[in-house]
């Protein structure tokens, strides 16, 4: 198979494109002929700092395609099924072998490009808002970094569930693009005072739930924006940094801080049901993920560089074909 791989950590230039042996199909494995790869923030972070456990190492969490073969103990899928696959590596290739419990059906009528974007962005956003964030209708939700994949998923899910959604982005133009997805108030974090604007928007109450997708950048302003007993979700580490909290910061606002890692949940029946519901809502036209750019798999270096440097709106995909 053709695949993208690397031997050592570094920038996009460490990746190579060439031939590797086809992956083996274990008894509980689904082999996917990949059509579209969604580049996730963790793909970039792993390439930069996580030593590859084996080399050559094929990166990538997430892809959509057609089942080519299944293991002897697989019961949910058969050859020819359209599916989404997730694993901690391996999606940047023509063939992606994933455990059955990390494989999700694509319903009829769902575009495969949209399907490829579902698990990490929408699952992470949903858990941040509801499973752990306990969001209620009418609450004020602040999405720090609302123009990325998880941010846009969160804006849609929160607004459709009755929240007042406030989002931050790096320009007024980017904020205007988020409005059709359910954004009620936008804050340009480069030119506006986040805490002051949130106080104004909430009538002095403060934010009920903050989703921090920026690795703690602007943390002090976010703490200033949150209400007493508010909730603060730390989501992922794709920026390469995470916020740290002193006890006084937590006590001063009596705030609740929790971390989100949806990947640890994705094998569960709950996650399968959640992702099936997201896919259904996509088919119905109620949810979508903007595709910022598309690259061929052979152009993975350029694709990763665009994700890292191009401030993409939504997700960046790679097209794969044998």
From TrEMBL:
InterPro entries: ADH-like_C, ADH-like_N, ER, GroES-like_sf, NAD(P)-bd_dom_sf, Quin_OxRdtase/zeta-crystal_CS, Zinc-ADH_QOR/CCCR. PROSITE patterns: QOR_ZETA_CRYSTAL. Keywords: Acetylation, Cytoplasm, NADP, RNA-binding. One of its GO terms (cellular component) is cytoplasm. Gene3D superfamilies: Medium-chain alcohol dehydrogenases, catalytic domain (3.90.180.10), NAD(P)-binding Rossmann-like Domain (3.40.50.720). GO terms for molecular function: oxidoreductase activity; RNA binding; zinc ion binding. The keyword Transit peptide does not apply. Residues 10-318 form the Enoyl reductase (ER) domain. Its main location: cytoplasm. It is found in: Cytoplasm. Homotetramer. This is NADPH:quinone reductase. It comes from Novosphingobium mathurense.
């Amino acid at each position: 198979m053709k695949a993208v791989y690397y031997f050592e950590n570094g920038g996009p230039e460490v990746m190579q494109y060439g031939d590797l042996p086809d992956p083996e199909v274990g008894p509980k494995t689904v082999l996917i002929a990949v059509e579209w790869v969604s580049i996730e923030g963790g793909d970039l972070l792993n390439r930069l700092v996580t030593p590859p456990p084996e080399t050559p190492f094929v990166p990538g969490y997430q892809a959509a395609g057609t089942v080519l073969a299944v293991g002897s103990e697989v019961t949910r899928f058969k050859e020819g099924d359209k599916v989404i696959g997730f694993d901690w590596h391996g999606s940047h290739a023509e063939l992606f072998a994933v455990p059955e419990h990390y494989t999700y059906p694509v319903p009829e009528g769902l575009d495969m490009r949209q399907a490829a974007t579902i698990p990490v962005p929408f699952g992470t956003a949903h858990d941040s808002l509801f499973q752990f964030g306990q969001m209620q209708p009418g609450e004020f939700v602040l999405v720090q970094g609302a123009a990325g994949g998880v941010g846009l998923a969160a804006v849609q899910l929160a607004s459709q569930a009755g929240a007042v959604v406030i989002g931050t982005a790096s320009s007024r133009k980017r904020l205007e693009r988020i409005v059709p997805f359910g954004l009620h108030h936008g804050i340009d974090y480069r030119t506006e005072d986040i805490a002051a604007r949130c106080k104004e928007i909430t009538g002095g109450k403060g934010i009920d739930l903050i989703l921090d997708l920026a690795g703690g950048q602007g943390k002090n302003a976010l703490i200033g924006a949150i209400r007493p007993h508010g909730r603060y979700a730390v989501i992922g580490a794709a920026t390469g940094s995470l916020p740290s909290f002193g006890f006084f910061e937590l006590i001063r606002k009596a705030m609740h801080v929790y971390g989100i890692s949806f990947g640890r949940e994705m094998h569960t029946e709950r996650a399968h049901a959640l992702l099936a519901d997201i896919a259904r809502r996509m088919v119905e036209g109620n949810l979508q993920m903007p595709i910022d750019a598309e690259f061929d798999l052979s152009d993975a270096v350029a694709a990763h560089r665009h994700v890292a440097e191009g401030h993409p709106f939504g997700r960046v995909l790679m097209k794969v074909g044998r």
